[in-house]
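Proteins fold reproducibly. Take a sample protein:
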Amino acid sequence: MLFTTDSTGLAVKAKLFRGLGDPSRLSIVDTLRGGPLTVSELVTATGLSQSNVSNHLGCLRDCGLVTAEPQGRRVLYRLSDDRVDELIALAESLLADVARGVYECTRYAAVNGTQGSRLP
């Protein structure tokens, strides 16, 4: 399939939001907004398992949203760019105004994984 520049750009934007759309990855990103942390600190802060955190950090690193900085025997993870923090802050600001509509939206799966019904 041939992609135009616009459709390729849209596909990349969709991948960005798909990456942030996973509750575990979003939890990690949100936690890292407070500053760099190790895997064990992220496990404690998010309540996710160590293997889950490590797996999602790999995804976030591959996508360029998180960087890893070796510090002796530990590795500190941090947001790769201040704009990641700004994007989440903007989403929070938007949600302050439209949260009810987002919460009641039946077109997307709920956060707990259940599928909402489709509107006619």
In short: The CA atoms of residues 61 and 67 lie 6 Å apart. The helical segments are 5-20, 23-32, 39-46, 50-62, 82-104. The mean pLDDT is 87.
